[in-house]
Amino acid sequence: MPVIAPDASPFKKNDSGSSTQQKSETKKAHAMDHISKGPAIPEEMPPKASKEEIDARMKELNKK
Predict the structure, then answer these.
(1) Where is the composition biased (Basic and acidic residues) (predicted)?
(2) Residues 6 or more apart whose Cβ sits within 8 Å of residue 57
(3) Per-residue pLDDT of the chain (64 residues; tens, 9 = 90+)
(4) Phi, psi torsion values for 23, nearest 5 degrees
(5) Considering the entire predicted model, what is its pTM?
């Protein structure tokens, strides 16, 4: 059987320093990052359109 050196790896080592730079820039997500207080609802909404206006707009856009 062949003898494999303990420091040998099938993956190439990146000695350029970019891998250490990427590790310092990325952060792991915490549980608090995924907690939401619900949907964001804007304070000023446009006026509600009637069903007829919506249907007319839909027909106008789908003419082609």
Answers:
(1) 24-36, 45-64
(2) 49
(3) 666 666 656 656 655 555 555 555 788 888 888 888 888 888 888 889 999 999 999 999 998 6
(4) -65, -35
(5) 0.33
- Cα separation, 11 vs 3, in Å, equals 18
Alpha helix (H) residue ranges in 1-64: 18-25, 51-61
Backbone φ and ψ for 9, nearest 5 degrees, come out as -140, 145
Phi-psi region of 38 (alpha: psi -120 to 50; beta: other; left: phi over 0): left
Give the whole-angstrom CA distance, residue 50 versus residue 56. 10
